[in-house]
Amino acid sequence: MESEDLGRKGTEESAAPNAIVNLAEDPKLSGEGVKDPGRSFMSICKSLVAGGVAGGVSRTAVAPLERLKILLQVQNPHYIQYNGTIQGLKYIWRSEGFIGLFKGNGTNCARIIPNSAVKFFTYEQASRFLGSKASKFCGFTGGNPATVATISEDAQLTPVLRLGAGACAGIIGMSSTYPMDMVRGRITVQTDKSPRQYRGMIHALATIYREEGFRSLYRGWLPSVIGVIPYAGLNFGVYESLKDWLIKTNPYGLAEDSELNISTKLACGATAGIAGQTFAYPLDVIRRRMQMVGWKDAGTIVTGQGKSKAPLEYNGMVDAFRKTVQNEGFRALYKGLVPNCVKVCASHHRS
Q1: How far is CA 174 from the centre of its chain?
Q2: pTM, whole model, 2 decimals?
Q3: Would you say 190 and 70 are in contact if contact means Cβ atoms under 8 Å apart?
Q4: CB of 91 within 8 A of CB of 146?
Q5: Predicted confidence (pLDDT) per residue in 151-210, tens digit
Q6: Tell me: the pLDDT tens digits for 47-79?
């Protein structure tokens, strides 16, 4: 789900480009004293481009796992082709070749810079706004205008307020580029045997808009937004709690001078990421399935209703949950979880 993109920071010592790209994505930043970047426009642009390149390399490295995850989430239970991580990757390689492992990755990478730019500037404004409101109304400064201005400039927010600013920025950033994610999902699941082929992101956007209408580009948006809250909260809470516990107990000498080493922080980040994504994962499955609704040429790919092999139609998020559990059981809400967890671990260990 967008939670994949809403929290993949590795350590507190990450480079500036990554800090900007992931500023709104990472709830862990809310505990690390990140200041509101008072940088020049050119400096921000350079950082966004550098972060975009780094993010593109990162996403490309785990693209086969990402594609397999989406295929497992939406495949028709009456036409099983992908049955597990290893078998699924082998099947893609055998049936579509090496390039097939990376289908949809170009669109995924194209989202990085515009998505990150929106989140960066939204986070900056949300930090100033929340800092000002907290100073005025929460009694932190007694409403002193000079102090309010100082806090607004430096964005020295409490962890909870910074987490709120990050979640707000993440939701706005995700919404601004959601149509790109929607077509990415469809391009990812189409195969060489699909009746109709999207030739790329622009062609897919134009085709969906022409045949299904503008609203169809935002199918699955609601579960994406809802998923941000539990994911961000759990990711932040598990990371901070695990980090504090390791510093206090210091098992195996992992902490030195009340600080954890890089590898331990990466492990904490991966654990927190897995916990957050596992909890919010059913929303990601529903989001992907809702994105396939209305795609008349995907009957052999997307899930069917009951014993029918016809594409499943949903009237909304709740209806999608109900039909998925009713027709395939509760476990269907966690299809593709294993490759997703492997992807999360790999992403954090490259950070």
Answers
A1: 9
A2: 0.79
A3: no
A4: no
A5: 444 445 677 787 888 888 889 989 999 999 999 999 998 877 776 678 899 999 999 999
A6: 778 878 888 888 999 999 999 999 999 987 877
